[in-house]
Design goal:
Blueprint: E1 5-9, H1 13-25, E2 30-34, H2 37-47, E3 50-55, H3 64-74, E4 77-84, H4 88-100, E5 104-110, H5 115-125, H6 133-142, E6 159-167, E7 173-184, E8 188-190, H7 192-201, H8 205-227, E9 233-237, H9 247-257, E10 265-270, H10 279-291, E11 294-298, H11 306-312, E12 317-320, H12 322-325, H13 332-347, E13 351-354, H14 360-369, E14 373-374, H15 385-397, H16 399-402
Parallel strand pairs: 1-2, 1-3, 3-4, 4-5, 7-9, 9-10, 10-11, 11-12, 12-13, 13-14
Antiparallel strand pairs: 6-7, 7-8
Helix pairs in contact: 1-5
Amino acid sequence: MRSLKVLILEDNPFQLMALHQMLNANQVFDVLTAGSVETALEALEHEGPVDIAICDLQMDGEDGLSLIGHLAATGLAQAVMILSSAETSVLHSAAQLARQQGIDVLGVLHKPASVTVIGELLGAWATPGRTPATANQAMISALPALPRLDRTRDYRAQWIAHFQPKVGADGKLSGVELLARWQHPNLGLLSPGHFLAQLEQAGLLPELTWHMLELALSLSHRSLLSRGQALPVAVNIAPQMLDLQDFVPRLLLLLERYPVRPQMLTLEVVEQSARQMAVVQFENLLRLRMAGCRLSIDDFGTGASNIQRLLELPFSELKIPAQFVRGMAEDQRKSAVVGGALLMAQKMALNVVVEGVETLEDYEAVSMLGSPAVQGYFIARPMSEADFMRWLDDLERHPDQVLALRSIRPGRAPADK
């Protein structure tokens, strides 16, 4: 294991000493220790960033959640282990909060920890591809901000799509989602987290959305011409796009320009507010479905009044987000949530896409609950168009080599399914 730098936050002196010894036993000797959040912050200020922070939750004064929030905001730790005697539901909620703040959670452990489990988590994390903490902090600090955007400038040549496949229970491709990327001439390839907010502030979100829709329909039409079958494509649609009176007519013109059946296009609508949906939004969604387009309620279960929206609006698909799926093989609560959503979707005649399937264990857990389409790193990472077309060719020629799903599914489903 390469050299790691670890911070321990633990207010019990005996357990602090035991954790220190466990790290030493796993060949980790660069260790900062703190009995309070204040001491931990002082240690980080003087000693610099760490790779991993092991955090207790319940303490006198500021609790471990305060330190995790600070680490997430400053980038002074790449990952955390949460170690506490709190209830399991509290531990999992703390881990979810940490992930929402953008910090990697290596594990959630009940006290007392064991040297073996600590070693396994450290070993799984300390891979050759990881960047040391000091280098990572320097990289974060040196990352230039996106320059001020010019509303009158045409950025479409720099906006590209990456493609992530969706695969059905039979191992066949059921569609592909287009994910926006910015190929910036100076900053390199940027993900949406680095540019989307600024793009929205500059009023350029509609231009990006129309560009992505055109890329999607162009790809689907080219697939129809070259392969004899249009490719089902999905594009994310921000709610404010549905405020535009000309949204549906303009989309229908785009469908005429790239003549594929409207059923080949899925619009994934992200819900951001609990406010009553405006009449123009409601009408646009209804007209889209009347035209034949498919509508997906994205990140189902994380927005406001999702179930009410399903009852009110003409959605044809719900998408179960990654946060309910990651680790569900080991979390019965997540399995219950996903299983309940699948059952509800079946009763409502809705298609389901489960995203964030990253491991064999989570894929098997999903398979035991039903037969939705799955999306995630276990199937394929988002990729350029050229790489996606090669992946698609390989899938058609050698499906068992690209997707070993048939060797996984037999015997996994319960007998009553």
